[in-house]
Amino acid sequence: MTLLVYLLASPLAYAAAGPVDSLPNPSFERVDEKTGYPQDWESVWGRPTTCAYSLATARTGIACALVTDHSETDSHGLRSKRVAVAPGVTLAASVYVKLADPGGFAVYLEFWNAAGQRVFNRSSGTSAATDWTQLSVTGKAPPDAESATLLIYCGSTSTGVAYFDDASLMAARE
Ligand SMILES: [Ca+2]
After folding, report:
1. Distance 123 CA to ligand 1 centre (A)
2. How many angstroms separate the alpha carbon of residue 31 from the centre of ligand 1?
3. Dihedral sign, CA of 107, 137, 46, 39?
4. 18-171 in CATH: which number?
5. 65: closest CA among 23, 96, 111?
6. pLDDT by residue (tens digit) across 102-145?
């Protein structure tokens, strides 16, 4: 009985509550043959990037996303399609990362308003994950948020090579 009470009172009882909406191509299995990026993922800031669909390794399926950053001044990353959200909802953005060449890599949870402006971002990163490691970040949608995205990213001053797989956006409790 003591154990049961403990479990009911535990934060674990309020863990992620399920998918918000379908994040397209979350396992990076499909390639966009025009760009070489995973289908339904776009270059961060809309400019050309060294990111790519990769068959070099995978956590699930046969493919993943590869982020290569050899620049100490440019950032590289891929952003998911926007997923509709209700204001005030709390989401957890999660992805698995494996570093082939150590550097500073991160997952971002982003919220956007109706005008297409980013109104929230929060990240979780690693520089040491040499085998598949989950990165997860939680945040609450601001009152004017209408959509959310997940961004896999290597910052402007960071360099390195990393594989990403199994992205998700889930409803969560803060
Ligand atoms: Ca995959």
Report:
1. 22
2. 11
3. positive
4. 2.60.120.260
5. 96
6. 999 999 999 999 999 999 999 999 999 999 999 999 999 999 99
Cβ atoms < 10 Å from Cβ of 122: 15
Distance between Cα 58 and ligand 1 center (Å): 5
Can you tell me the distance from the alpha carbon of 64 to that of 86, in angstroms, rounded to the nearest whole number? Answer: 30
56 Cα: distance to centroid of ligand 1 (angstroms): 11
* Burial readout 145-154 (b: 16 or more C-beta within 10 A, e: otherwise): bbbbbbbbbb
The rounded Å distance from CA 77 to ligand 1 centre is 17
pLDDT digits (tens, 9 = 90+) for 33-89: 998 999 999 998 778 889 999 999 999 999 999 999 998 888 999 999 999 999 999
Neighbours of ion ligand 1 (CB under 5 A): 27-28, 58, 60-61, 165
pLDDT over threshold 90, residue 10: no
CA 134 from chain centre, in angstroms, equals 10
Cα 152 versus chain centre, distance: 5
* Cα(57) to centroid(ligand 1), Å: 8
Q: What's the 165 CA to ligand 1 centre distance in angstroms?
A: 5
**How much is the pTM?**
0.86
